[in-house]
Amino acid sequence: MKKHTLIFTFFLFFHQSFSLDPNYEACFPKDCGDVRNITYPFFIDGEQDPSCGYPGFEVHCNESAMLRISGNEFVIKDIRYSNSYLRLQNAAILPNQTEPCPKMIRNLTLDPNRFRFGNASTMKLVFISNCSGNLTTDLEKYSIKSCERSNKEVVMLDNDPNLKNVTDICGNGSETVETPVELSGGVGRNLVVDGGNYRDVMERGFMLHWLATDCDVCLSSGGRCGFNRTKFGFRCFCPDRPHMVSCKPVTVGSAFIVTLAAAIFIIRRANNHRKAIAYSRDLEGSSVYFGVSLFSYAELQDATQNFDSSQELGDGGFGTVYYGKLRDGREVAVKRLYEHNYKRVQQFMNEVEILTRLRHKNLVSLYGCTSRRSVELLLVYEYIANGTVADHLHGDRAKQSPLTWPNRMKIAVETASALAYLHASEIIHRDVKTNNILLDNNFCVKVADFGLSRLLPNDVTHVSTAPQGTPGYVDPEYHQCYQLTDKSDVYSFGVVLIELISSMPAIDISRSRDEISLAYMAINRIQRCALDELIDPVLGSDSETERMTRSVAELAFRCLQFDSETRPTMNEVLEFLKGIQGEGDNNVGELNVNAGKAQMPPASPETEDVVLLKEVDVVMASPLTVTAKWHSTGSGVTTPTTSG
């Protein structure tokens, strides 16, 4: 009896050892119609658990894969996981439909946190129904001839100069809706001529770019991406259990068990697994150089009008950036590395390698580059039209319309999200500054310029006698010991936070000598409890804004600590900012760092204002130049000096 019990117990233990986490099993990629290997951020309703995908990315599988956006149903024609694009076709117009009149079409409104149009040639097709007026002969070409109703159905492009005439004739009783279409070649022009080709145009579909949390780090660690809907955050589903970002290393024994369990699971799902592998290889096979397109010098010369100075968007220590327009209509930013920069090949390859292994909604996308053997090294990025955060805070754009506090808070959260993602990917940016934070038209962040970035595993103990960075943002500890850590980015981000609440530049030689460095000035103001001298009055004086700006000032102070060990991690910074933004003061003060004496004191009984960190051992701001020397004053705070 004991023998049988022992055998039963052994097999029970054996079975449990080989069982995989249910979330991991539930999120295996699945097919729907012609769309293969549907996986995060999408999930198939009824076939995959909602935790396998991002909210708003639910796919309904009924012969074809369908996605619903703002009340419209779209057929998914293609999903490109390599660059987060998908092609959609309005389900109201399907090839096998024979109805003479278009089905109900609703206006499409995109959630800017989920989708944006993915092609510069995307336009709007305007449908005007119940048109009771009599169109003149020259406007009859816009009516849908096959639709025989008492009142006309009219279709035209939204940029058509006759649109206003048609809407005026159709009268107030008519109804107008718009749907996106992608135009290229002469199809759109033919539509304007006779109005009978609107189906042809709509059947072409259009491209959308999705902005869901990237999951490359999770995938590369052997996990499957998912979403925790309770805490509303990304999760990496691993064979053992869910993790925050990636599957953590396991012991040899556990690895053996997990490997065997995965093997059994893979054998059970052999057919689907082979499809997934084939799909992955197809993506890799489409790569040309590090997975991005190669452009010829002549093509980029033509796109930038021969690198005309009128096309310049900006320049820096390593190259000039030009506005360009490719032959396919895409607007791009082309970085031309300086000829005299002896490290240009290294920086070129460094930026290409880093950007091609990363995908995050708040990191600028790399479209391609020239060959590294080209006479000139050129990098081609997506064009971000709304300038830099620096320009909006203390540049020309600031004079036109200052950034509102909600937008500044949004910028802080999204920048922190991008940097936390970089650090989770074991990459240090090394040049975090407001000039490297771009904004699109919705004030969404795109962190740029990875020429100085480094991979952590190889360079964490790297020593350089000539640290590169931007004065005012350089980690003073890095200047002292020349060691690269992720806390260097945290320091630089602390300066960015001060810029966001003060609207002042990181370095300003017009300020008094002791306040040329914004970081040093901020430390001084915070220690003196004189935040009213630091915070930009344009932000307003309402109690909620005041509370939030003071909380951000406290966080910035912690980021600016001289000792890197007392600074929070970038992930802790992100969570703290989210707490300020979304949950009032609930999360304030919960920063999980060993801050030594840099702790939050109790509020003063005389005032409701929070008193911020008045005593620390040593606090030093970034040197005015990377070669500036530091001399202790013996007072616990050091002052930068310059030679000469």
UniProtKB/TrEMBL annotation:
Signal sequence annotation: 1-19
List the catalytic activities from the record: L-threonyl-[protein] + ATP = O-phospho-L-threonyl-[protein] + ADP + H(+); L-seryl-[protein] + ATP = O-phospho-L-seryl-[protein] + ADP + H(+)
Give the EC number(s) listed in the UniProt record. 2.7.11.1
The answer to whether keyword Nucleotide-binding applies is yes
Q: What class of enzyme is it?
A: transferase
InterPro entries xrefs: Kinase-like_dom_sf, Prot_kinase_dom, Protein_kinase_ATP_BS, Ser-Thr/Tyr_kinase_cat_dom, Ser/Thr_kinase_AS, WAK_assoc_C, WAK_GUB
Binding locations of ATP: K335
Its primary localisation, in coarse terms, equals membrane
Which SMART domains is this protein grouped with?
S_TKc
State one Pfam family annotation: PK_Tyr_Ser-Thr
Q: Classify the protein's membrane topology as the record does.
A: Single-pass membrane protein
> For this protein, what is any one GO molecular function term?
protein serine/threonine kinase activity
Matching entries from SUPFAM superfamilies are given as:
Protein kinase-like (PK-like)
What is this protein's record name?
Answer: non-specific serine/threonine protein kinase
**Which species does this protein come from?**
Lactuca sativa (Garden lettuce)
Organism classification: Eukaryota, Viridiplantae, Streptophyta, Embryophyta, Tracheophyta
